[in-house]
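Deliverable D4.2, example record:
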Amino acid sequence: MEEKESHKNPLEPGASAAGGKATDLFSAGADSYAKYRPTYPKELYDYILQFVGEREAAWDCATGNGQAASALAAWFHRVDATDSSAEQLKRAIPLPNVHYQVATAENTPFAADSFDLITVATAYHWLNWEAFHREATRVGKPGAVVAVWAYNILRCDDQQIDRAIRDFYFDVMYPYWDKERRHVENAYATVAFDFLPLPPKEFAIEKTWSKEDVLGYISTWSAVQHYVEQNCASPLPLLEKPLAEAWKTAGPRTFRFPLFLKIGRVTK
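Output generated by the structure prediction step:
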């Protein structure tokens, strides 16, 4: 079937989160990714779960190190968590009712009508949206909830620290981001999400971090990996000096990640 243009993610062939480029990016930094990536607030899950009737089974797609899957385990009898990166899954959080396996977002081994909730945490921009819609519709129960979310660039109340990070993001790293990053920057406003819509909502992730934590998190950016590949050197020294100058007093700082959610229901 010919794909409708509005339903496509402009990925190169083989570059979805199911494999290819995205897999390689997140496999390479799996340890740092597991250590530094921020966790999602309970308020996000509470909001999503109010729309979920039965809580027998959930599927966390593109699970990475299992951050969302392990949280969902507190509410569901069984959580199936898939990712295209075997390296990411090696670092996944082990729990008795979470079952990890390598699988693509668009083609899974699950039976039809299996899940009450399907989630994609900070990965929907990598997917082939039309193919994922078909698969989620197949494996989701009638009326199942589909929730996708992501967080935007971190912010700091200290304006000098905030400026140092944003200058690095826009002036140094911007050419090295994959084009899919633009979907995160505009809060998924232009992605295809063809499920019966439920009310979206915005949240925030707050972290209290040292300079080292900030640099550790930024080292997980896919753009940093692209920079290293193209320049045979890390870009982090270009941030370390201005960040140290902006960080005038000792001690950690509070950072805030804006978090946005799209949510809907499966219709058969």
